[in-house]
Amino acid sequence: MIAAVIDDNYERIKADLVRLGLTYERLMDDLLDHICCMVEENMEEGDDFESSYNMVLDSIGENRLPEIQHQTLLNLDKKFQRMKNFTYIFGLSAAILTIIGSLFKRMHWPGAGIMIVVGLALVVLVFLPLYFITSYREQTERKNPVYPIVGYLTLALLLAGASFKVMHWPGAGMMLNISIGFLLIGFVPLYVVNVFQKSGKERVYLPYIVMLLVGIACVVLISVVNMSKDRLDVYIDGALANEKQVELVEEQTAGLLQLAEDSAHLDQLATITRIHNQVRDMQVMVTGMQEGMIAFVGQSGVTIEEIKGKDNKQAGREAMLEHGEGSAFIMEAKKFAAMLNELVKDPAVRAQITDHLEFTSPVWDYAYNGVANSPLVVNYYMNTDAAKGIALAEYTAIAYLLHP
Amino acid sequence: MIANDLLKGTLRTIILKLLADNGRMYGYEITKKVEELSTGKIKLTFGALYPVLHKLEADGHIATEIEYIGKRVRKYYALTETGRSWTAQKVDEFFDFVNTLTYVLKPTPA
Fold it and tell me: What pLDDT is stored for residue B24 in this prediction?
């Protein structure tokens, strides 16, 4: 009797399921039978077909069927499942590589930088995109691509910034700042909205947000925090030692210049004077930048030893890059290196000079870009180092020209 | 009622074990049986059931037989040979897990 009534309404139930969004034939058979059974059970308790059926339909809810179908198809999608497994295994290996790299870095073993950069690059370029794509595809309700995209950009920039920072590459600070911006004005508000929309249904993962924020705060702190006093003092000692050495070398050079003028080395005098003038120009630039830095922290006339604000990070940027002659100085120094290279024929002496002027080599251009984010004393020290190199190169070159 | 997140990982084992004990079953029958055995504490919705059944079938652990009840197609699910040994293994794993949890969660005597 009941079975007959249901049979009569079979096509209608099927049509309703299609209307509710069920299209996968194999699941249709299952759900049709299941729903018929539920209706039957209600009818056995005395309800008529209409009220039983409506009750069952109500209990199913609007979006439930497409959701079940989506889940079933994803479960069956071998490629998708493989992609998911691959994602996790890949993420794990990349993370392990990064951690080993960090360990190497701590122990100052070679190869640390490469491992960290490759590990983080794999995380940023392979794992994170795959992770966000798979988890997005698994979602059934409130699919909103903005959420994974913002999440990806935040994490990617954060990790890239961290690896740039580790490698002392330029742009690290900028990346970290942008990612923190993303985090604060994009990711966190979106996440909170998402949590509140879902509240009641899913657990609120507020602790994770808090943890995330604390993590970010640590990163910011580490990048902003002053260099430890001991290390700053080491730079000052280095700078003073350099300055002392420059003085000594200049005295000796002055002796050589005197010799050149007094003796029969007149043929070399023009060249030697050219070298000396070039050196003087560069020394003026260096002194200018150093005074600029000290002036920036508002203490002109004070020596580097007594200075306050040794860790000021804007000083170098201002005095060397933005309003200073940092780039011009490097250009001049490169010209100077080329000039000496041409004048000095002896390869051994030439190697010595190249060594003194190491700061003009391409590798050092990176260091010069680092000026923007280095504390005042570090930049000051770098300048004294350059000045020392120039003085030594000058002495070596002039000595060579006088006694080839 | 048993919370859904506790149930999530064990659903597959429950279904396999039921099929092992009862031979072939259809979907609705499985949900009823789970409710009965758990004295109403576990309510298996079809939304949770069918994705798992289809996955188990695709992996070759269970197979289907079709019967017609009037116009309706009724799909019976039963374990395959590989499914049978896999089930035994999964059930063992589960008891292992429960025993371990009991040790961990049991209040220690003072």
Answer: 92
> SS3 of A94, please?
helix
| List of chain A residues whose C-beta atoms are within 8 Å of the C-beta of residue B53 | 30
Tokens, residue A348: 């051994």
pLDDT, tens only, A289-305:
888 888 888 776 777 77
Largest CA distance in chain B: 65
For residues A147 and A190, the answer to whether their CB atoms sit within 8 Å is yes
Query: What ipTM is given for this predicted complex?
Result: 0.86
Q: Rounded distance, CA B84 to CA B102, Å?
A: 27
The pTM is what? Answer: 0.48
| B contact residues 45-104, partner A, Cβ 8 Å cutoff | 46-47, 50-55, 58, 66, 69-75
Contacts of A287 by beta carbon, 8 Å cutoff, 6+ apart: none
Determine contact, residues A164/A171, Cβ cutoff 8 Å: yes
Residue A296 CB contacts under 8 Å (≥ 6 apart), including other chains: A312, A314, A315, A318, A319, A376
Q: A115-147, pLDDT tens digit by residue?
A: 888 888 888 898 888 888 888 877 765 667 877
Q: What angle do CA A50, A54, A57 make, to 5 degrees?
A: 140
* Cβ distance of B46 and A7 shorter than 8 Å: no
Q: Which long-range contacts (CB under 8 A, 24 or more apart) does B99-107 make?
A: none
Bridge partners (DSSP) of residue B75 are B66
- Identify the closest residue of chain B to A26 by CA–CA distance: B54
Q: Look at residue A194 and give its three-state secondary structure.
A: helix
User: What is the side-by-side strand order in the sheet with B25-26?
Assistant: B25-26, B72-79, B62-69
Report which residue type is found at A59: S
* Short-list A206, A68, A56, A59, CA closest to A141: A68
A26-30, A62-66, A76-80, A151-155: which has the highest mean pLDDT? A26-30
Six token digits for residue A284: 């003026």
* Domain B4-105, second-level architecture: Orthogonal Bundle (1.10)
Cβ separation of A31 and B50 shorter than 8 Å?
yes
Closest Cα in chain B to A63: B47
* Domain extents in chain B: 4-105
For residue A40, give the chain B residue with the closest CA: B28
- Counting beta carbons within 10 angstroms of the beta carbon of residue A135, is it exposed (0 to 12), middle (13 to 18) or buried (19 or more)? middle
Q: Using CB atoms within 10 Å of the CB of residue B12, give its burial: 0 to 12 exposed, 13 to 18 middle, 19+ buried.
A: middle
What secondary structure does DSSP assign to A54-90, as a single string? HHHHHHH-SSHHHHHHHHHHHHH-HHHHHHHHHHHHH
